[in-house]
C-alpha cells in the first residue's frame, strides 16, 4: 500500500513500516551489499528523536584526545551527520564511505528490518527515542521548513497529526519503531543500549560516561579529573553546535539530489515544546495512544 506522505511524496508500507521510495531503495541496497564489521557501533533512532545530538556525543567520545591523539575535533568543522554516516543514505549509495576512521555509523531502519548480518554480528547499537508529542512536532517543523525552503506548501499540522496517530509517518508507526528496539534491548542488553532524549538531558554527564562504557572506552580517572566529560558535553551542546558556522550555513547531502540545510537539524532542543503547537486534547490523545501501544512492554516513555 502507498499513501501521500508528509513530504508530499508517496510513502510505502514495507514489513509494517512506512518508507519514502528514496529510503526504501537505500534499505534494499543495504540488504544486498552491506557487511558489518564486528566492531561497528550504530546510533539508531526514529527521525527527530535526538539523532544529531547522540551522533555528536558518541563521535566526541570515540575521538577524544586520549584515543585519537588529536586535540581538535572534526565536530567543529563538520556537521554531525557528516561525521557519522547513515547506513541507508550514505553507505548504501556510496560504499567507499565504509572506509571510516572510526567504526561509528547510524541508521533509522526499524529493528525488525535490519539486515540479519547486523543482528547476528557482535556490533553494538545505541538507540534513542523521545516523547511522541515532541517527536511529532519536531518532525512536522523539520519537514515543513524543508518544504518551504523549496517553495512547496507543507501539510497542515492537523492532517499530519491525524496521520501520525494512525501510525503513518516516516519510519512509523512511531510506537512500533520504539518497541522493536526496546524488546531487543531487553533480550540483548550487552548489544543494545536503549536511551531517551529526556534522560540524557536530565543527567548528561552520567550518560556520557554510560555511553563510553558501553562503547568499550570508559573515561580514565585522569580524564575525569581533567574535565574531559564536561568538555564533551559543552562541545555537543545545542548552543555550541547550532552556532557553529558549518551548522548555521552549511548543507548536508543525503544524495546528489537531496541536500538539507544543516540549521534545520537544530531547532529548539527542548523538552515539552509540543505544547506550543498541539492543543491539550491532541496531546492527551497521543499520550493515550502511546500508553495503549506500550502496555505490557515494561517501557514507560517520559512525557
Ligand atoms: P526539536 O525540533 O524539538 O528542537 P534528530 O537529530 O533526530 O533529527 O532530532 C532533532 C531534534 O534534536 C530537534 O529537536 C533538535 O533541535 C534537537 N537537537 C539537535 N541537536 C541537539 C543538541 N546538541 N542537544 C539537544 N537537542 C538537540
Task: Draw up the topology in text.
Blueprint: E1 2-4, E2 10-14, E3 17-20, H1 21-33, E4 41-45, H2 51-62, H3 65-68, H4 80-83, H5 87-93, E5 104-107, H6 116-120, E6 124-129, H7 132-149, H8 157-165, H9 174-187, E7 192-196, H10 197-202, H11 204-214, H12 221-225, H13 228-235, H14 238-242, H15 245-249, E8 251-253, E9 259-261, H16 280-294
Parallel strand pairs: 4-5, 4-6, 6-7
Antiparallel strand pairs: 1-2, 2-3, 8-9
Helix pairs in contact: 1-5, 11-13
This protein binds adenosine-3'-5'-diphosphate (A3P).
Residues 45, 47-53, 56, 134, 138, 141, 236-238, 241, 265-269, 273 line the site of adenosine-3'-5'-diphosphate.
Question: Mind explaining what this structure looks like?
Answer:
It is a single chain. The mean pLDDT is 93. The radius of gyration is 19 Å and the shape is globular. The chain has a single domain, classed as Rossmann fold. It starts with a strand and ends in a 9-residue tail after the last helix. The protein contains 16 helices and nine strands. Helix 11 crosses helix 13. The protein has a four-stranded parallel β-sheet, sandwiched between helices. The protein has a three-stranded antiparallel β-sheet with strand order 1-2-3. Strands 8-9 form a two-stranded antiparallel sheet. The site of adenosine-3'-5'-diphosphate has 22 residues, from helix 2, helix 7 and helix 14. The site of adenosine-3'-5'-diphosphate (A3P) has 22 residues, from helix 2, helix 7 and helix 14.
Amino acid at each position: 500500500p502507498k499513501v501521500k506522505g508528509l513530504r508530499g511524496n508517496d510513502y510505502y508500507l514495507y514489513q509494517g513500516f512506512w518508507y519514502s521510495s528514496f529510503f526504501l531503495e537505500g534499505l534494499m541496497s543495504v540488504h544486498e551489499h552491506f557487511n558489518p564489521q564486528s566492531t561497528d557501533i550504530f546510533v539508531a533512532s526514529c527521525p527527530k528523536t535526538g539523532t544529531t545530538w547522540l551522533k555528536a556525543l558518541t563521535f566526541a567520545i570515540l575521538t577524544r584526545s586520549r584515543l585519537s591523539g588529536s586535540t581538535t575535533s572534526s565536530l567543529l568543522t563538520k556537521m554531525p551527520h557528516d561525521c557519522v554516516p547513515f547506513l541507508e543514505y550514505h553507505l548504501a549509495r556510496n560504499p567507499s564511505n565504509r572506509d571510516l576512521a572510526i567504526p561509528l555509523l547510524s541508521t533509522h531502519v526499524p529493528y525488525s528490518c535490519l539486515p540479519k548480518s547486523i543482528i547476528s554480528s557482535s556490533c553494538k547499537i545505541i538507540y534513542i527515542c523521545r516523547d511522541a508529542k515532541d517527536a511529532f512536532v519536531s518532525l512536522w517543523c523539520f519537514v515543513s521548513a524543508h518544504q518551504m525552503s523549496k517553495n512547496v506548501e507543507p501539510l497542515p499540522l492537523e492532517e499530519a497529526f491525524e496521520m501520525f496517530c494512525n501510525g503513518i509517518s516516516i519510519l512509523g508507526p512511531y510506537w512500533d519503531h520504539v518497541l522493536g528496539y526496546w524488546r531487543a534491548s531487553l533480550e540483548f542488553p550487552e548489544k543494545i543500549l536503549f536511551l531517551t532524549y529526556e534522560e540524557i538531558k536530565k543527567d548528561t554527564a552520567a550518560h556520557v560516561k554510560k555511553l563510553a562504557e558501553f562503547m568499550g572506552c570508559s573515561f580514565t580517572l585522569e580524564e575525569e579529573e581533567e574535565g574531559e566529560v564536561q568538555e564533551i558535553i559543552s562541545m555537543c551542546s545545542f548552543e555550541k553546535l547550532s552556532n557553529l558556522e558549518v551548522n548555521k550555513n552549511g548543507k548536508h547531502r543525503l544524495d546528489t539530489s537531496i541536500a538539507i540545510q544543516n540549521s534545520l537539524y537544530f531547532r529548539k532542543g527542548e523538552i515539552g515544546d509540543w505544547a506550543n503547537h498541539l492543543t491539550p486534547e491532541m496531546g492527551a490523545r497521543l499520550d493515550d495512544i502511546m500508553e495503549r501501544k506500550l502496555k505490557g512492554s515494561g517501557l514507560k516513555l517520559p512525557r
